[in-house]
Design goal:
With 242 residues, the chain is of the alpha/beta class. It is built from eleven helices and twelve strands. It has an eight-stranded parallel beta barrel, surrounded by seven helices. α9 links the parallel β11 and β12. The mean pLDDT is 93.
């Protein structure tokens, strides 16, 4: 399981939200590159960057920050937020992202997912399945649909997308740990790979995820717990199977 320290960018700062609420933000670093460099210096080999400005507006707003992070730190970066056109995906990959993450557009724009998968390959395009109250959310976590998680995963697989980022928005930023049974159901429903995000607060949460023993669990995204020094990157990497 791969550790992905998170750099969420809003108004030029590295921040964390609580339950996806933009009004409940905390600034941890005024320079996202400095935040990212800190994780790499601690041992991180991958990074997860979210353009929260892009998620709100529908178009990427932090490609320059992406260029700086990907260009200066020498580790793969996956990037999401506001990627709602084929051009936006191409721009993110050109700016240095190793993988682009489609969210809202994968569900609301017919044909877009299939187009970017054909153009860039499924290894470079992930789909973000963000769930609140058991239903998928879109538009930067501001709108909740009636679509269930399992139905979405099945639909995405039929469309060629089997590599996912799964976020429990209700747990995001709460540091209360994942719902392991929910995660297990998601992992068993997915035919490809899943990167989990949401609520990681202590090392035992990472141990719980690896303890599920599901081969589809490819990685875990950790944000607030690292910023709040609940544990370090080095300590996380010492957990067996990470």
């Amino acid at each position: 399981m791969t550790l992905y320290p998170a750099i969420d960018i809003l108004e030029g700062n590295a921040v964390r939200l609580v339950k996806g609420e933009f009004d409940a933000k905390k600034v941890y670093d005024e320079d996202p590159l400095a935040a990212a460099r800190g994780w790499v210096e601690e041992g991180a080999e991958y990074l997860h960057v979210v353009d929260l400005d892009g998620a709100k507006t529908g178009t990427p707003k932090n490609l320059e920050n992406l260029r700086r992070i990907a260009g200066e730190l020498g580790v793969p970066v996956q990037y999401g937020g506001g990627l709602r056109s084929a051009q936006a995906v191409a721009d993110a990959l050109t700016a240095g992202a190793a993988r682009a993450i489609l969210g809202t557009a994968a569900f609301t724009q017919p044909g877009l997912l299939e187009q970017v998968l054909a153009e860039h390959g499924e290894e470079r395009v992930l789909v973000s399945v963000d769930v609140r109250g058991g239903h998928v959310t879109t538009a930067g976590w501001t709108e909740t649909s009636e679509i269930t998680t399992e139905a979405v995963i099945g639909s995405l697989a039929r469309r060629g997308a089997s590599n996912l980022v799964f976020t429990n928005v209700d747990r995001d930023g709460m540091l209360e740990g994942p719902n392991l049974e929910e995660v297990r159901r998601v992992l068993q429903a997915c035919e490809g790979s899943v990167i989990y995000s949401g609520g990681i607060g202590q090392l035992s949460d990472l141990e719980g995820l690896t303890g599920l023993g599901e081969s589809t669990l490819e990685g875990v995204i950790v944000g607030k717990a690292l910023y709040e020094r609940r544990f370090t990157v080095k300590q996380a990497l010492a957990v067996p199977q990470i």
